[in-house]
Amino acid sequence: xxxxxxxxxxxxxxxxxxxxxxxxxxxxxxxxxxxxxxxxxxxxxxxxxxxxxxxxxxxxxxxxxxxxxxxxxxxxxxxxx
Length: 81
Fold this sequence. Notes:
Blueprint: H1 23-41, H2 46-53, H3 57-66
Helix pairs in contact: 1-2, 2-3
């Protein structure tokens, strides 16, 4: 018979400092990063990106608008390449 460590014998994990962000903000940031990565992977093809993401083109367009994203990314003023 194996003995299991008791609650008192386990060392508690050291607390980590977490950023003070709501779950919604964290989710939005993750969505933003993933959508941009997929758009880069597809060379900016929104139809292919929507397929990979498992959403319709309209949903992808709405997500881009909601997240304040444009594709291709806008260049800063005065930067023509």
